[in-house]
């Protein structure tokens, strides 16, 4: 274990990763570089500096990655209308590759030969961090303390803290929740505790980012989202940066009881797990993007996107953001977005996101053809006969040869 | 045109299809058999008998197809979690093959050599009726008056009625809406009129099957759906037949403001069209089925279903229910449903369908493994390292050879 | 029919399209512009000029499109390893969009309001020409004489020629074959005649571009193909332009009995049809490209390509080259080809194309890891245990719950 | 390591697995049950009995699994036209689940608590054996000596033999090859040695099951394969059991120089590896099955199969035969095969498998429609216009709105 000289740790400033700092120092006799990112988790990151210093860390990185996160990760993913297993908006998954990328950049800058993180050996995050890291720097060493150490219960962990003088109040406020939580600009997640019974309904006070539909205002909120090349760029006519857009939509959505999810998902490591999520802005963006596409995207492009989407979502869920296959799919998706421009009007009301209008200079909705009224010859109804006849030909031949489809 | 002797018409009893009866008699000098089905459209079908008689029809079929419809069409489709273009629950599409099938059965019983329907040449329904018919009886002739006649405006149609003594009040109540509507047990649809502007929000009184979320009760309704082999069989513990189940869920859902959709879809004939839909029961069933699958379906089976779904939905939307490729997909889907048994608990509140619990004797959710607590060795966290290392191997080799994934 | 002023005809100089010139002049009282392209069909195109003149045509286009054809159509398609229905290399399909594109360009240049072609109403080519044309110029009119006229038998056609003084020797040599043939740089095809019995083996003298395997040399020919970004750029070390490359490979392949295909395919218009094809150069290029990819392409990129390929091939077969969905797939495919560089060594012998070597500076084949010998720690075999354990986890849980996979 | 009482070993009778017998006895102090299967590898299995006895084994299983192998594994796979990465016919992959299944059956019969195999930690076979075993008996323990022991060089292995009195001539004839070989009724494979250079052409005397095309007869061999429900059941009119069919086709194919493959494949464990394969009968069966399908399978069923195939092949390659997702795909595939009946005529000549005829009572090839001659109205060419017009509609609308597809 003496072959590690310096390790970059994804450091939250919380108790667990503070223990990891010390454990790395003790176990590997190596220098620890901490890296704390603001990706919109809703907690101050600056306090992590003093905690890291107190642990003897000399190289401390604290970065505001919010704009990069939304612009280069969240937005490209939303172009795909990505949903994992029909429900999950990938709020944790999409944040991990950015952390991995920054860990590797810092390893390069500081000459570190390893990275470390606080994810457990049962979850998806270890996979996402490590696949990202290996893809960007194949020779990097990875230390995943939760897979190595024996501090597997709260008691042993506390004992370790006591022994090493790690202040337990590092744990912070968040840990007073009975749930394991994680947050970034796209969502906040809850796992563990009573949620481990999938028949158990979470109590109201678990949720932190949204009011309940019941508690939301009795009058709806209308908003207009403006799109360019598949990305939301204006809200009610005002241009917003990616991070500001998502922050604002989180606020508006949360105020209207939007974006709660309660589901059982299939982890890449092979087990099912219960998760609850709040994704207010993402929920709005998903509906809005589909609505924008509904008038601007060609039918077959849309269908191809729909068929590729589950695969794309799975790649991100499983941690393959930095992979050739994700890049291929992204190239196909991005190719489709050149004309996804315009405005979507939405009504937000007690948990509902209702699309009530869409318009675009690039609209393919052709009233002259679609109308139930006289179309002045824009569409020749007689064409439909030949269309149907030839589409039916193979079926008729088969039926003629005695094949039944009943 | 003298080669048609007898034609079976899908007859609603409304004005348009009543005109068609007369037009067929006049134009083809043929006998007309009318067929009127109760598929849950919410209107009496028996009155069609007198109207048909008044038009001189001698063979009149009036069938209650509600149970067959839900059991053999709706339920198999819901096993697939089918959604067209991310939004549409295929409420019109799935009813058409049943009508086509019954038209052909009646043609066989009555010795008719043709079928006819009242769908226009611009829509999907003509395709669905005719593909179904051709697939089941390849030599059948199809008469689609809207593609042939010149009664293309309300005026010419009325003039025709006046000339032939067709009572205009055949139009019935439904036509007082400014929208073109269609309904069956799965949904009611609205098209045309102001909806032809996709930026226009429909007025509240358009909707017929549901109250608005605003008008829905202030207290939530909880229900439990019991599943067997992927189909809902009990509601709050009581066994319900397929049609009764859907009727009941429509009622409960509609009362809670659930199931409204407003979208622009891509028709098979090549144009975009605006449609509004109310699918209260279907919206509940879709969420419930996914929730049931979430604890009972294997991960890769679920993912395969998700990847096949858009294609399956497209087949149904385009009218290929009676096709070898739909049967193949159905075989795959049905193969996956043997263990989709159990109970889903749902909270319905002002437009929201919230899954709040799921349980099953066939659950694959393994608390012993999934737990954040000590798992007593059920899962060896060290396995994750090898798992990640080998999954990363190809990425590391590529990176070693200088390929960047940024 | 008086609304056509000028029509651009895809003119081969043969009898059928010569008749079409006259028929268009007679029927539409319009000016006809002829367009004859050299796409490597192996016949002089210049003689078409005199024939067109003799028919009174004033605007005559004769273009050598061979380089554009291979560079912009054949090569992009081969990057996808496109095969239709497991066998067909799309030799006819891929030539059509280029013809459509040039027809539209000439229509734009000459102010023509229509295009015309000599494809029948039963085949795929009409679809490919017309979809291409409509996609590039949506208001263009299309005249497809074979779908309109009554010259449907050889006799009526000959009578028409006699009546209008069209020299019948326009038919040329090619028509002495009992087969309907078509050729371009990628292949020559045979249809009709005895081939309409799928159990009938074509006689040896049908084939024109290749010797039989029996008649091919008794000693093999070795060649080396050099690739850049997925395209073949050198043959035995010598740089060749796209058209020259394909011409040369056709010659070498044909001399070695390579590239004959005899199959029954499914046309887009709904029927099955028997076709025989000679694609000597294409057959070599397909094997070589896959071999080049086998050492340079990432596994998951390769698998994604394989899963997308049938769909891509179908798009081209059905005539959707100029479509958003083809562009999306092309974007994904091209994204994958940046490192498909290197050399493939092939042995050609009596119909066989045998890959006997591949090498590349971008090879991902890592001998140090792949070796059966001691790998000096490049790969840790113990990682496999965790890899297998976690991949098996979902299967074990299911088995534990009593599910059998037998 | 004392917790293993009895282990069932997949025992070839060769040196490596003989060493494993002793190593298991020594290391785990457990009883070893040997299992040797005849799956058509072309070597006597009975001699394994004496060798096992000499090693002190008391429970010895020697089974002839050839018919089960072809009937229940090879034939279902060939219904899918499965090819991995465009080239590989999965000859090794498909044999592994059968071995896994039998290992588990014997474990159940003998009360063993573990299985063991001689596959290395670098290859796919360990994955296939173990996934199969875990899927069938989730609590089984697996011992993979090559991942555990330190006998990683030939020298240490020989030293171990000397020390434990294991007769080195157990190695048998096969090991005199410089290649690592593996065989079963479907194929024989070669890996390692000089093949580790992908640019190196294997010498002629490596190949064991086929003559070279050069050495094959100068006159072709014609055969007729009869199919029922997608499986070959007669050869030249004579009914043959599955194993006899494959053995016979191997002989005929091998005699005609058919079925050699030389490729670089992507292993599931993450590396590329060079493999050479001889699959004479399988190569014939693949071409024949596709030809049989070409006249009997509906177009869209065929295309769906083609799109699912790469995924199906990957599942088998990766070891997921006993999985819900393979069963789902198999259900879809098998659903399509009911009418894949008839006869395919093939010409075999110096490495070429040429389809020269196909016929079937279930043929969908309709000469009356397909003919280039007058079809007496079976097909109305005018239908094509409407077909094209509506298929083009979306493209025309887009072009009208200024979108270019160039």
From TrEMBL, chains A, B, C, D:
Keywords: Amino-acid biosynthesis, Arginine biosynthesis, ATP-binding, Cytoplasm, Ligase, Nucleotide-binding. Homotetramer. This is Argininosuccinate synthase. It is found in: Cytoplasm. It catalyses: L-citrulline + L-aspartate + ATP = 2-(N(omega)-L-arginino)succinate + AMP + diphosphate + H(+). GO terms for molecular function: argininosuccinate synthase activity. Pathway: Amino-acid biosynthesis; L-arginine biosynthesis; L-arginine from L-ornithine and carbamoyl phosphate: step 2/3. PROSITE patterns: ARGININOSUCCIN_SYN_1, ARGININOSUCCIN_SYN_2. Residues 6-167 form the Arginosuccinate synthase-like N-terminal domain. The gene is argG. L-citrulline binds at residues 88, 93, 124, 128, 180, 189, 265, 277. Pfam families: Arginosuc_syn_C (PF20979), Arginosuc_synth (PF00764). The keyword Signal does not apply.
